[in-house]
């Protein structure tokens, strides 16, 4: 049986690589004991802002066996989205790199389903579910546990060979596998670049991010008006924010992604500051068709652009 687990684990990692995943690590499906007090403290301090859904399914977030019947293994995967493409107008309101192309949820879910199908074809009938950022799964905790990197001071997962510009996803299955049991050491050292650079002081201490102050939260998750205290502090970001990643020394090792679906819409990079100010519903629908930016809706993006203007 042990030999089979080794063979199956290697097969899964090989197939994941063929599908374009940058990383693949495997952990035993069990209760995340270390994460429980951290999550509880973070919620008690209201660092999730208006993200009420973070309060739901507390137990499920910590135990994948409550999400998938008979779960034995958590397969953590990472897919690179780094690009050196930039918006042409330096004065144009900015969009986070991850949202340049087609919505990553769609792309990654398709790949995960393919991987699950391959597992069923090559190993046998295996039950499981795919997860991409839309269910109560602590992605970073599982990726760290599987040896894919360490949690940096900006609370992102960092990898020595590829930085942090990658999406995380999981396949939770009812098959026992060989587990990666050597989590990566913390390599942040004394560096505080991310803490020092955060425009809204959202990184309130090493490894602790007050989500309610994060520009990504303010421009995407927050449905009400952006609080006036953040006027002049948004660093011209209208959707998401890359500051804490851009200043991270480990991202000098970022490599260009090879996924065509993550390439920006042809018009996106060419829109000037004035074009964004005057953006219409039609242009929004055209440029952000199938994009993660649709999550904030046209009205939300307009709100963000207006807020940036009011200094």
TrEMBL record:
Gene3D superfamilies: 3.30.70.20. [4Fe-4S] cluster 2 binds at residues 198, 214, 241, 244. It catalyses: epoxyqueuosine(34) in tRNA + AH2 = queuosine(34) in tRNA + A + H2O. GO terms for cellular component: cytoplasm. It is an enzyme of class 1 (oxidoreductase). It comes from the Bacteria. Its cofactor is cob(II)alamin; [4Fe-4S] cluster. One of its GO terms (molecular function) is metal ion binding. Binds 2 [4Fe-4S] clusters per monomer. Cob(II)alamin binds at residues 61, 133, 154, 157, 168, 216, 241-242. Coiled coil: none annotated. Keywords: 4Fe-4S, Cobalamin, Cobalt, Cytoplasm, Iron, Iron-sulfur, Metal-binding, Oxidoreductase, Queuosine biosynthesis, tRNA processing. Residues 179-208 form the 4Fe-4S ferredoxin-type domain. Its main location: cytoplasm. Pathway: tRNA modification; tRNA-queuosine biosynthesis. InterPro entries: 4Fe4S_Fe-S-bd, 4Fe4S_Fe_S_CS, QueG, QueG_DUF1730. The active site is at residue 133. TRNA binds at residue 223. One of its GO terms (biological process) is tRNA queuosine(34) biosynthetic process. Its EC number is 1.17.99.6. Belongs to the QueG family. NCBIfam families: tRNA epoxyqueuosine(34) reductase QueG (TIGR00276). Monomer. Catalyzes the conversion of epoxyqueuosine (oQ) to queuosine (Q), which is a hypermodified base found in the wobble positions of tRNA(Asp), tRNA(Asn), tRNA(His) and tRNA(Tyr). This is Epoxyqueuosine reductase. It comes from Mucilaginibacter lappiensis. The lineage of its organism: Bacteria, Pseudomonadati, Bacteroidota, Sphingobacteriia, Sphingobacteriales.
């Amino acid at each position: 049986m042990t030999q089979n687990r080794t063979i199956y684990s290697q097969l899964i990692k090989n197939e994941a690589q063929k599908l374009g995943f940058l990383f693949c690590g495997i952990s035993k499906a069990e209760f995340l004991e270390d994460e429980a007090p951290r999550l509880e403290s973070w919620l008690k301090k209201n660092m999730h802002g208006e993200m009420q859904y973070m309060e739901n399914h507390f137990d499920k977030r910590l135990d994948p066996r409550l999400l998938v019947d008979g779960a034995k293994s958590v397969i953590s995967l990472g897919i690179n989205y780094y690009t050196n493409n930039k918006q042409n107008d330096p004065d144009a309101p900015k969009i986070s790199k991850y949202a340049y192309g087609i919505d990553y949820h769609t792309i990654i879910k398709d790949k995960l389903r393919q991987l699950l199908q391959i597992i069923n074809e090559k190993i046998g009938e295996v039950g499981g579910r795919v997860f991409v950022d839309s269910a109560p799964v602590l992605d970073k905790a599982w990726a760290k546990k599987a040896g894919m990197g360490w949690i940096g001071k900006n609370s992102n997962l960092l990898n020595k060979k590829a930085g942090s510009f990658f999406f995380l996803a999981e396949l939770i299955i009812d098959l026992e596998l060989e587990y990666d049991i050597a989590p990566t050491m913390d390599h942040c050292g004394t560096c505080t670049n991310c803490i020092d650079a955060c425009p809204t002081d959202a990184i309130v201490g090493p490894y602790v991010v007050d989500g309610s102050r994060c520009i990504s939260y303010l421009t995407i998750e927050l449905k009400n008006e952006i609080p006036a205290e953040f006027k002049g502090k948004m660093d011209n970001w209208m959707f998401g924010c890359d500051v804490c990643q851009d200043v991270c020394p480990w991202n000098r090792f970022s490599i260009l992604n090879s996924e065509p679906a993550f390439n920006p819409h042809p018009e996106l990079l060419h829109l000037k500051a004035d074009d964004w100010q005057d953006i219409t519903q039609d242009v929004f629908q055209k440029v952000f068709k199938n994009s993660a930016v649709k999550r904030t809706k046209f009205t939300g993006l307009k709100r963000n652009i207006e807020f940036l203007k009011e200094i």
